Amino acid sequence: MNFTGILVGIISFLIIGLFHPIVIWAEYYFSKKIWPLFAVVGLLFLIPSLITQNAYLSCAFAVISASSFWSIKELFEQEQRVLKGWFPKNPKRIYSASTPKKHINSDLS
């Protein structure tokens, strides 16, 4: 039997699952302005994913890289989730005036 796919799936699941709280934590303490760090981490893990001979390590590095790049998008969306009240605001930070778009009721009554 070949367990490679299952092991790569487990590795991917764990890495992606780890990045969800990292994004929430990073946005809370540093705001979306920390996105360049995620870009650098993505690039730093992309390189070893290309040159590592071990298939499992190469896949793990690639998933970390892709998760880092995806986290950039999630940081900006996390800010919107905070503004909507879905996640707590950091009381030590002043949030921008940009608020999430609200549905405008066309009913005039």
Question: What is the structure about, briefly put?
Answer:
By secondary structure, the chain is an all-alpha fold.
Which terms would index this structure?
109 residues, 3 helices, mainly alpha
Q: Helical region count? A: 3
Q: Give me the count of strands.
A: 0
Termini, distance in Å?
68 Å
Instruction: Output the helix-strand order.
Output: HHH
Low-confidence stretches: none
* Integer-rounded radius of gyration: 18 Å
- Largest sheet at a glance? none
Q: What is the molecular shape?
A: elongated
Average pLDDT level = 89
- Estimated helix fraction: 55-70%
- How big a fraction of the residues is strand? under 5%
Class inferred from helices and paired strands: mainly alpha
> What's the number of structural domains?
1
